[in-house]
Amino acid sequence: MRLMIPAMVAAAAATALAIGAAPNAAKDDTAVPVAMASVNAGSFDFRLPGEYLKADWPVDAPKRKVTFRRGFEMMKYQVSLADYGACVADGACEAPDGGRFASGDVPVTGVSYRDAKAYAAWLSRETGETWRLPSDEEWAYAAAERMNDDALALSQDSANPAARWLARYRAESTIGERDAEPKPLGHFGTNSKGLADIAGNVWDWTTTCYLRAVLDDNGKITRSTENCGVRVVGGRHRGYISNFIRDGKSGGCAAGLAPDNLGIRLIRELPSLVGYVRRLLTKTVG
């Protein structure tokens, strides 16, 4: 059965999709400016997150080719302290650790995975759009050249299994100059996909759960255990942080060097033509 829609509605929907979705509109129809980066469809080699064992010893995670058949829109900048403060003022978010809602245009830090989810839900309600955290795959693809490969290329050392953990700590501690003070938005520049400050000194929460897996001789996963009480965070290096932790340095880091700061960067779902038309018709009827 073919969907029949009025010509004017179809034209409006097609125009909105062509320009990358309608502008954010709050409940009072006031525009909510959110700078976005459009990440085009494509493929890349993705180092799987988590811990991997072969013959009972830790090894580098395998790589997989990941293809995004549809592009997506991600916030160009991380959620600012002022923007998050609006959610707190509305009673939908908890105040961040150590956060003051000043006029400074800096990313919000001191927020947990739960805080990030609450902000996404609030922003979705305020704008009538769908906002969500990215997966680790999406974050890594969007990070492009700024995504650091966390492979260590070490041989198995049965005499000293701690060598791998020490090597990871050393590798992560030498990535870039250490300065944990949050910087103004845009301080770390823009990558090839148009995202600012990605892999700066604020790590972004993702929805991906921590995985512990066993590999066979061919690198195929034979069994695995997923722990969704710990999530992957993306930054100068990949991190693993418990859901409720707001400061990675407080002891919530599951492996390697703790992130300097924990923040938020969201994806805005692009509506399908049918979904957009339904929204348009619902607003017209209402």
Please tag this protein with its features.
single chain, 286 residues, paralog of FGE (formylglycine-generating enzyme), 2 domains, six-stranded mixed beta sheet, four-stranded antiparallel beta sheet, 6 helices, globular, disordered N terminus
What does the secondary structure layout of this molecule look like, with pairings?
Layout: H1 7-18, E1 36-39, E2 42-47, E3 51-54, E4 57-59, E5 63-68, E6 72-75, H2 81-89, H3 113-127, E7 131-132, H4 136-143, H5 163-173, E8 203-215, E9 221-234, E10 239-242, E11 262-263, E12 267-268, H6 273-285
Overview of this structure, please?
It is a single chain. With 286 residues, the chain is α+β, with helices and mostly antiparallel strands. The protein has two domains: 1-21 and 271-286, no CATH class; 30-268, paralog of FGE (formylglycine-generating enzyme). It is 24% helix and 22% strand. It has helices at residues 7-18, 81-89, 113-127, 136-143, 163-173, 273-285, and strands spanning 36-39, 42-47, 51-54, 57-59, 63-68, 72-75, 131-132, 203-215, 221-234, 239-242, 262-263, 267-268. The strands form three sheets. Strands 3, 4, 8, 9, 10 and 11 form a six-stranded mixed beta sheet that branches. The protein has a four-stranded antiparallel beta sheet with strand order 1-6-12-7. The protein has a two-stranded antiparallel sheet with strand order 2-5. The chain starts with 6 loop residues before the first helix and ends with a helix.
Brief description of this entry?
By secondary structure, the protein is α+β, with helices and mostly antiparallel strands.
